[in-house]
Write a structure and sequence with these properties.
Blueprint (H helix, E strand, L loop, with lengths): L2 H14 L7 H11 L4 E3 L7 H6 L3 H8 L7 E4 L8 H14 L5 E5 L6 H11 L6 E9 H8 L11 E7 L31 E6 L17 E10 H10 L5 E7 L14 E2 L5 E7 L11 E2 L5 E7 L9 H7 L8 E5 L9 E5 L2 E4 L5 H6 L5 E4 L7 H9 L8 E6 L3 H14 L25 E9 L3 H13 L6 E8 L7
Parallel strand pairs: 1-2, 2-3, 3-4, 4-5, 5-6, 6-7, 7-8, 8-10, 9-11, 10-12, 12-13, 13-16, 16-17, 17-18, 18-19
Antiparallel strand pairs: 14-15
Helix pairs in contact: 5-6, 11-12
């Protein structure tokens, strides 16, 4: 027998017995593809990848248990509250010993509200706080005060937190009202966590403007999407964010704390590249939009919540866009609106037409966009579509998400634009005094997401749109989302 073949035959039984012939480093690379996510406590019986691999053979068990990277992220699941404290502490200490001296990522999912969770925190997590680089929990204000208030834990390696503050349903309503000093996050200030850079705060019950005294000036990422703050509080935070790169904020325009005037100083965020704003009733006072400057901003998402207004004022967005980077690449505008009967203009041949938003100023303000997404209920006027087709508006646009009543106006616009992109020269439309009235050849769209909001939209209509979208042959695809609205004559 050939020596090589003999070697293969002899190696096969040992491989089947669970003793691989390749190095441990190669096995770890294979395990890296299989093991996803943190180590869960208590471990699931059937779905935890680590437990499955450990049961294969002794060698695999040794590799798993001796690789700290598989144990440095621990997730305390909700069922952990049902265990006895000693059992959970023993499991936690076992997992932490396998993590070696690596930095840790620790997440509590509603466990800190139980006595078991607090016992584990005090007995196990607090002694290892010097290794924790990421910490996440959901607590009540009282639990937050007990664990991180008067006797805060020091986190010298902490770089990110995700803290949710909820109401304790056993407490009276009066104690859950937003008052000054009700929120204590002393444990995450500079003295306790000097390396903190990323913060996610989810305070669903609201927060008093005098609270949240974090060291905003050293943070690079802030997410307050679920923590509504007043305009002046947002501007105060933004004024300190000299290193902020990614920010998400929810801003309430309906009231002002302490009767402060609406005059705002100019605020510059020099390093901000991605900004997402949830705006609550911004039509109450749009002075904020002219006071914000972000010279290197690349991505902007605007989510607007208004009450009872069918036609939205888009001029406030024009004011905001004048203060940000003219080379803005991505823009998302979501209005969270559902078309109502009164939003329709008079019929033409018994076919209702939707009221168009005034978007020409917005489109003119960000000519370098490569990605534009307009939420459901925001409609582009036919004249603006014509200028997009010729390249007068958004000549560099590659991906588009938009709403339409029929869908065909968008399909035809994309057809014209992509045809124009293949012409050797294409003169842009518009007055000769316009800076865009030059030979402009638009970039071809390569992806389209079309939301069709029509009355009496049938399967045949949807199929025709699907066929027309497929005929566009877009490089990254065409997605159609039909929404059939009740006839305009009938109220909802």
């Amino acid at each position: 027998m050939n020596p090589v073949n003999q070697q293969i035959v002899l190696a096969t039984p040992s491989a089947r017995m669970g003793f691989p012939t390749f190095p441990k480093s190669i096995q770890r690379r294979i395990f890296d593809f299989y093991i996803q996510g943190p180590a869960v406590l208590p471990p699931p019986k059937d779905s935890d990848e680590r437990q499955v691999l450990i049961l294969v053979c002794k060698e695999w068990q040794g590799i798993l248990e001796s690789t700290p990277g598989y144990w440095n992220a621990i997730d305390f699941a909700q069922q952990a509250a049902k265990l006895r404290p000693n059992d959970l502490i023993r499991l936690t200490e076992c997992f932490l010993s396998r993590s070696g001296n690596n930095v840790l990522s620790v997440r509590f999912r509603d466990v800190l509200q139980s006595n078991v969770g607090r016992h584990v925190f005090e007995s196990v997590v607090r002694p290892h706080a010097q290794r924790i680089s990421f910490f996440s929990c959901t607590v009540t204000k009282e639990t937050l005060r007990l664990l991180f208030g008067w006797n805060p834990v020091r986190f010298p390696m902490l770089r990110g937190i995700d803290v949710g503050v909820i109401r304790d349903f056993d407490e009276p309503v009066v104690s859950s009202l937003v008052v000054g000093g009700s929120l204590d996050i002393t444990g995450f200030q500079y003295a306790a966590a000097p390396r903190l850079r990323a913060v996610v705060l989810r305070i669903l019950g609201g927060v008093h403007p005098d609270d949240m005294r974090l060291s905003w000036g050293r943070l690079t990422r802030i997410d307050l999407a679920d923590t509504c703050v007043l305009v002046h509080k947002f501007m105060k935070i933004a004024r300190e964010c000299v290193f902020l790169e990614r920010g998400t904020f929810c801003i309430d325009f309906t009231r002002y704390f302490g009767g402060q005037p609406t005059r705002l100083r100019m605020v510059l965020i020099p390093r901000l590249r991605s900004l997402r704003l949830r705006l609550v009733q911004p039509s109450k006072d749009g002075v904020l939009f002219g006071s914000l400057r972000a010279p290197v901003l690349e991505e902007l998402c605007l989510e607007r919540e208004e009450i009872g207004q069918g036609i939205r004022d888009m001029v406030i967005y024009e004011t905001l866009l004048k203060g940000v980077n003219p080379n803005l690449k991505r823009l998302v505008m979501a209005e969270y609106t559902i078309p109502m009967t009164r939003w329709f203009v008079p019929r033409l041949n018994r076919s209702p037409r939707m009221v168009y938003q005034r978007l020409d100023g917005v489109l003119r303000s960000c000519q370098n966009l490569t990605f534009l997404f307009l939420g459901s209920g925001v409609f582009i006027h036919p004249l603006d579509l014509d200028r997009m087709a010729t390249g007068d508006f958004l000549p560099r646009l590659e991906r588009l998400g938009v709403s339409s009543v029929s869908g065909w106006d968008i399909i035809w616009m994309v057809q014209r634009r992509n045809l124009a992109s293949r012409l050797p020269e294409f003169p842009a439309s518009g007055p000769s005094s316009s800076p865009m009235a030059r030979n402009v050849r638009p970039v071809a769209l390569n992806r389209l997401r079309l939301c069709v909001m029509g009355c009496g939209l049938g399967e045949a209509d949807v199929q025709k749109l699907e066929d027309a979208g497929s005929m566009l042959a877009l490089t990254h695809g065409f997605l159609l989302k039909p929404i059939d609205i009740a006839d305009a004559r009938n109220p909802f």
